[in-house]
Design brief:
The chain is α+β, with helices and mostly antiparallel strands. The chain is 22% helix and 27% strand. The protein has a five-stranded antiparallel β-sheet, sandwiched between helices. Strands 4-5-8 form a three-stranded antiparallel β-sheet. The longest helix is centred in the N-terminal third of the chain and has 16 residues, at 31-46. Belongs to the polypeptide deformylase family.
Length: 179
């Protein structure tokens, strides 16, 4: 039976599968992989996320999607076309890091201030099975690092430096989106 995004169950902090290392995708061009990419995109758009990793819906593959755009959870997010990332790796990181607020569909209702590299150069396979290298900066670099962490069993709270840098999403939205 082919899985539809409405069948996905978002796994949350505490579920042991959120902490495992995802497996390399071998058949990028295969029907199952292509269908999974379409369904992951539909799922993350429906959930107002700016990214989703396959392990978050209990699929143990090194796949994630970045799809930044302004929405109710990220009103100030930049607009970018959906980007399908398969078997990614970071091949260069800037020395400069910056703390920024992050949320996660697998940690609902919470935001944390997370240090990330400001710029990264990455290599990954596209959905058309091409290996590419790209440099990302700012918010998009943050999304990439956040989603890559999911593939390695890491959640953003693991990177928060102090419990004083965690807040409820409702309070974050009041503080950072009011005019």
């Amino acid at each position: 039976m082919t899985m539809n995004h409405t069948d996905f169950e978002l796994i949350e902090l505490g579920h042991p599968h959120l902490r495992r290392h995802a497996e390399v995708v071998k058949d990028v061009s295969g029907t199952d992989t292509q269908h999974l990419l379409d369904e992951l995109l539909a799922f993350v758009l429906a959930k107002n996320g700016v990214g989703i990793a396959a392990p978050q819906v209990d699929i143990n593959q090194r796949i994630f999607i970045m799809c930044s755009r302004p929405n109710s959870r990220y009103p100030l997010a930049p607009d970018m076309p959906p980007t399908f990332i398969i078997n990614p790796e970071i091949i260069w990181r800037s020395d400069e890091t910056e703390k920024g607020w992050e949320g996660c569909l697998s940690l609902p209702g919470i935001r944390g201030l997370v240090p990330r590299h400001q710029a990264i150069k990455v290599r990954y396979t596209t959905r058309s099975n091409e290996s590419i290298e790209v440099e990302y900066t700012g918010f998009v670099a943050r999304i990439f690092q956040h989603e890559l962490d999911h593939l390695d069993g890491i959640v953003y709270l693991d990177r928060v430096e102090s419990t004083h840098e965690i807040m409820m999403e409702k309070e974050w939205l009041k503080l950072f989106t009011s005019n």
